[in-house]
Specification:
The protein has 145 residues and is mainly alpha-helical. Helix content is 63%, strand content 7%.
Amino acid sequence: MARKGELSTGLSAAQTFVLTVLIERPGASLNELAESTLTDRSSVAAVVDRLVEQGYVVREQSANDRRRASVSITATGRRAMRRAASPPPTIVLINAIRSLGPGDQRSLSSGLTALAVAMGVDHGPSGMLFEDAVKKSSRRRRAKA
Protein backbone atom coordinates (compact mmCIF):
# COMPACT_ATOMS: atom_id res chain seq x y z
CA MET A 1 0.00 0.00 0.00
CA ALA A 2 2.76 2.47 0.94
CA ARG A 3 4.83 1.62 -2.16
CA LYS A 4 1.79 2.00 -4.45
CA GLY A 5 1.16 5.52 -3.12
CA GLU A 6 4.83 6.42 -3.45
CA LEU A 7 4.87 5.27 -7.06
CA SER A 8 1.75 7.25 -7.98
CA THR A 9 2.85 10.51 -6.32
CA GLY A 10 6.62 10.34 -5.90
CA LEU A 11 6.06 11.00 -2.18
CA SER A 12 6.72 8.70 0.77
CA ALA A 13 3.82 7.50 2.89
CA ALA A 14 4.99 9.80 5.70
CA GLN A 15 4.99 12.77 3.33
CA THR A 16 1.47 12.01 2.07
CA PHE A 17 0.37 11.61 5.70
CA VAL A 18 1.66 15.09 6.57
CA LEU A 19 0.09 16.57 3.41
CA THR A 20 -3.25 14.95 4.29
CA VAL A 21 -3.11 16.56 7.74
CA LEU A 22 -2.23 19.94 6.18
CA ILE A 23 -5.25 19.73 3.88
CA GLU A 24 -7.39 19.30 6.99
CA ARG A 25 -5.43 21.82 9.11
CA PRO A 26 -3.97 24.56 6.87
CA GLY A 27 -1.37 26.70 8.59
CA ALA A 28 -0.65 24.14 11.30
CA SER A 29 2.47 24.59 13.42
CA LEU A 30 5.10 21.85 13.71
CA ASN A 31 3.79 21.07 17.20
CA GLU A 32 0.24 20.74 15.85
CA LEU A 33 1.50 18.52 13.02
CA ALA A 34 3.37 16.34 15.52
CA GLU A 35 0.22 15.99 17.61
CA SER A 36 -1.95 15.22 14.57
CA THR A 37 0.51 12.66 13.19
CA LEU A 38 1.04 11.06 16.61
CA THR A 39 4.81 11.52 16.42
CA ASP A 40 7.50 13.76 17.84
CA ARG A 41 8.27 17.25 16.61
CA SER A 42 11.75 16.45 15.24
CA SER A 43 10.46 13.61 13.07
CA VAL A 44 7.65 15.65 11.57
CA ALA A 45 10.06 18.58 11.08
CA ALA A 46 12.35 16.36 8.98
CA VAL A 47 9.42 15.34 6.77
CA VAL A 48 8.29 18.97 6.46
CA ASP A 49 11.84 20.02 5.51
CA ARG A 50 11.80 17.56 2.59
CA LEU A 51 8.33 18.75 1.54
CA VAL A 52 9.54 22.37 1.59
CA GLU A 53 12.60 21.43 -0.53
CA GLN A 54 10.31 19.76 -3.08
CA GLY A 55 7.86 22.68 -3.18
CA TYR A 56 4.90 20.77 -1.74
CA VAL A 57 4.57 22.99 1.35
CA VAL A 58 5.68 26.40 2.56
CA ARG A 59 6.76 27.29 6.06
CA GLU A 60 6.09 30.88 7.10
CA GLN A 61 6.34 32.89 10.26
CA SER A 62 2.92 33.29 11.82
CA ALA A 63 1.43 36.76 11.48
CA ASN A 64 -0.11 36.45 14.98
CA ASP A 65 2.88 34.97 16.85
CA ARG A 66 6.42 35.56 15.54
CA ARG A 67 7.68 32.54 17.55
CA ARG A 68 5.38 30.20 15.63
CA ALA A 69 5.95 28.91 12.12
CA SER A 70 2.93 27.82 10.14
CA VAL A 71 3.07 25.17 7.43
CA SER A 72 0.71 25.22 4.45
CA ILE A 73 0.30 22.98 1.45
CA THR A 74 1.03 24.53 -1.95
CA ALA A 75 -0.83 24.07 -5.23
CA THR A 76 1.90 21.58 -6.22
CA GLY A 77 1.24 19.63 -3.03
CA ARG A 78 -2.51 19.60 -3.68
CA ARG A 79 -1.95 18.31 -7.22
CA ALA A 80 0.27 15.52 -5.89
CA MET A 81 -2.39 14.53 -3.37
CA ARG A 82 -5.04 14.37 -6.11
CA ARG A 83 -2.79 11.86 -7.92
CA ALA A 84 -2.59 9.68 -4.81
CA ALA A 85 -4.44 6.44 -5.43
CA SER A 86 -5.75 6.04 -1.89
CA PRO A 87 -5.42 7.47 1.60
CA PRO A 88 -1.93 7.18 3.13
CA PRO A 89 -1.47 3.86 4.97
CA THR A 90 -0.95 5.72 8.23
CA ILE A 91 -4.44 7.24 7.98
CA VAL A 92 -5.89 3.76 7.33
CA LEU A 93 -4.00 2.35 10.32
CA ILE A 94 -4.99 5.15 12.71
CA ASN A 95 -8.64 4.97 11.64
CA ALA A 96 -8.62 1.19 12.17
CA ILE A 97 -7.11 1.56 15.65
CA ARG A 98 -9.66 4.23 16.54
CA SER A 99 -12.46 1.87 15.44
CA LEU A 100 -11.39 -0.68 18.07
CA GLY A 101 -13.09 -0.75 21.42
CA PRO A 102 -11.24 0.60 24.49
CA GLY A 103 -10.26 -2.88 25.70
CA ASP A 104 -8.84 -3.86 22.33
CA GLN A 105 -6.94 -0.57 22.15
CA ARG A 106 -5.41 -1.24 25.58
CA SER A 107 -4.45 -4.79 24.56
CA LEU A 108 -2.90 -3.54 21.34
CA SER A 109 -0.98 -0.85 23.22
CA SER A 110 0.33 -3.36 25.77
CA GLY A 111 1.34 -5.79 23.05
CA LEU A 112 3.09 -3.16 20.96
CA THR A 113 4.89 -1.79 24.01
CA ALA A 114 6.13 -5.29 24.87
CA LEU A 115 7.24 -5.78 21.27
CA ALA A 116 9.16 -2.47 21.26
CA VAL A 117 10.90 -3.44 24.51
CA ALA A 118 11.76 -6.90 23.13
CA MET A 119 13.18 -5.28 19.97
CA GLY A 120 15.15 -2.72 21.99
CA VAL A 121 13.49 0.23 20.29
CA ASP A 122 11.56 1.57 23.27
CA HIS A 123 13.92 4.50 23.93
CA GLY A 124 14.28 7.70 21.95
CA PRO A 125 11.85 9.65 19.84
CA SER A 126 9.36 7.92 17.61
CA GLY A 127 9.89 8.35 13.90
CA MET A 128 7.22 8.89 11.31
CA LEU A 129 5.50 5.62 10.53
CA PHE A 130 6.39 4.31 7.06
CA GLU A 131 9.22 6.85 6.71
CA ASP A 132 12.04 5.29 4.74
CA ALA A 133 15.18 5.03 6.91
CA VAL A 134 17.29 4.40 3.79
CA LYS A 135 16.49 7.86 2.47
CA LYS A 136 17.59 9.42 5.75
CA SER A 137 20.90 7.57 5.82
CA SER A 138 21.68 8.33 2.16
CA ARG A 139 21.00 12.01 2.86
CA ARG A 140 23.53 11.89 5.72
CA ARG A 141 26.12 10.27 3.45
CA ARG A 142 25.66 13.01 0.84
CA ALA A 143 26.02 15.71 3.49
CA LYS A 144 29.33 14.20 4.66
CA ALA A 145 30.70 14.01 1.10
